[in-house]
Specification:
Order of helices and strands: HHEHHEEHHHHHH
Largest sheet: 3 strands, antiparallel
CATH topology of the largest domain: Four Helix Bundle (Hemerythrin (Met), subunit A)
Strand order of the largest sheet: 1-3-2
Number of domains: 2
Helix content: over 70%
CATH superfamily of the largest domain: GntR ligand-binding domain-like
Shape: globular
Strand content: under 5%
Distance between the termini: 18 Å
Number of strands: 3
Length: 237
């Protein structure tokens, strides 16, 4: 794919100029956010010097921030070639969601006996708000992340929570693409099934729902992306 040479959008440059004291973490948050929303699209070149100049920091914090984003799979750093936002890749989707299924199943297994009535109420509140969203709302993925985080954070395994968080940061782009192309009806129905399994304390049913939920997302997203690619290919002269 041909690398994009366009400069960063003005809003992203503005955000970099408002950098708070914890600079490396803030840089990661800003760049990650704009990658996940698609404002920095796959293939977009990132200029280390431009980011450093705009944010008023030295090259080192920028380099550290980009290395963290590389570890999350959000950017690619090529020796002698520069840095670019990583592309949506069918093989990556299969692997990332496959790994996430295993981790989220373990998390829900650990979480169910630890979830409180307050946790159940928070889960229900998030899902109710999601039900009120219409069509392909851009807010839906944020609520989606909140719902799953309530469960995962109750697992009591900090390393597991951290691993899932890194995966979620990467696959969130795919979730947003899923919502854009396919809507939320199937995923939301599965969320409610997972909620009821948690309330009932049924770990085995919850693990099955988790498997079905992420497998459905993977399969539907891959089918939609392949169909979209085929459509673009047919339109090429």
């Amino acid at each position: 794919m041909k690398q994009k040479e366009a400069a960063m959008p003005a809003q992203i440059l503005h955000d970099l100029g408002q950098l708070p004291p914890r600079r490396t973490e803030a840089l990661v948050d800003i760049l990650r956010s704009h990658i996940l929303t698609g404002e920095l699209p796959p293939g977009q070149r990132l200029n280390l010097d431009e980011i450093a100049q705009q944010s008023g920091v030295s090259r080192m914090p920028v380099r550290d921030a980009l290395k963290q984003l590389e570890a999350e799979g959000l950017v690619n750093i090529y020796p002698q070639r520069g840095i670019e936002v990583s592309a949506l890749n069918i093989e990556d989707i299969t692997q990332l969601f496959g790994i996430r299924i295993v981790l989220e199943q373990k998390a829900v297994e650990l979480a169910i006996p630890r979830l409180t009535s307050e946790d159940h109420a928070r889960m229900r509140d998030v899902l109710t708000k999601m039900d009120l969203l219409t069509g392909r709302s851009s807010s839906w993925p944020n609520f989606n992340a909140q719902f799953h985080y309530i469960i995962n954070s109750a697992s009591g395994w900090p390393r597991l929570i951290s691993m899932i968080s890194v995966l979620r940061a990467n696959v969130d782009r795919y979730v947003r693409e899923y919502v854009r192309m396919l809507g939320t009806e199937i995923a939301q129905r599965q969320h409610w099934e997972l909620y009821h399994a948690c309330v009932d304390g049924d770990a085995e049913r919850a693990k099955q729902v988790v498997h079905d939920h992420f497998s459905t997302t993977t399969n539907e997203l891959l089918s939609a992306l392949k169909a979209e690619d085929n459509s673009k290919t047919k339109k090429m002269p």
